Prior knowledge:
By secondary structure, the chain is an alpha/beta fold.
Amino acid sequence: xxxxLEVLNALNxxxxxxxxxAGLSAYEKTGELLPEATLAAIAQHKVALxxxxxxxxxxxxxxxxxxxxRKFDLYANVRPAISFxxxxxxxxxxxxxxxxxxxxxxxxxxGQSLSEDGETALLTQKITRKGSERxxxxxxxxxxxxxxxxxxxxxxxxxxxxxSGLFLKVAREVAAQYPDIECNEMIVDNTCxxxxxxxxxxxxxxxxxxxxxxxxxxxxxxxxxxxxAPGANIxxxxxxxxxxxxxxxxxxxxxxxxxxxxxxGAVQMLEHIGQVDAAKRLKQAIVDTMNDKDSLTxxxxxxxxxxTFAQAIIKHIKA
Length: 319
């Protein structure tokens, strides 16, 4: 986060920050993973840039991210996967976006139970017409707004005929209202195979929560890993932007973490608040830095640090 804020300040677009704690750092200070002051600040400002957070094992929320998404009804998870130069990816020219429903489905973990003998576990999966309609509409509106030409609806309605079946039915109804956007349907297991075989066929993918969680990480693997994977969590009244990777306690404090995922999350944030030119400048500076192999972090094959990588990006912003 320190490196990301240095880069954002170099853009000189007048951003101001309110710093709040969440996760393990907040727990150590307040005894809460998500203090009320943190939630109040997000509600007030309506835009947040979130560092990877550590959740204490065996305590508190199963997921702080799930708690934030529920609290602020951040129903749309937007995960771009874009090829950058000089990565360890087997592919080039990837440019796709996964739009994942964020508030319902199996991923939420509702209705979990374990029998007394420990032999049987149950989970309730709930899909609603409202949740399906608004995520699919978000995907098509986004595609139209940014000039994307195709939306792929990903489902498992051949087997999960009630839940995934409802999602697919509603998605078809919404898609019919966007005749200018090409639309196709694909079963989730075939989607994963096709992403590995011919990823260039995809433009925008829209799907349910658990499938989107898996597919978006697969897509990150197509472009070089989670160090290049940002995510936006967007609701009607609030949006939270992040790097999708975890907090990596094994390298914390060593100064070798790749800042690009959080920086690309900041690109999404800048676009969301209308700073489109600044977003383009930041993204281009990242591309230029990677093209030059300038101070890259070890995950990208370089010998640089988080800070030297950030300084190299700043140099390209000011060039």
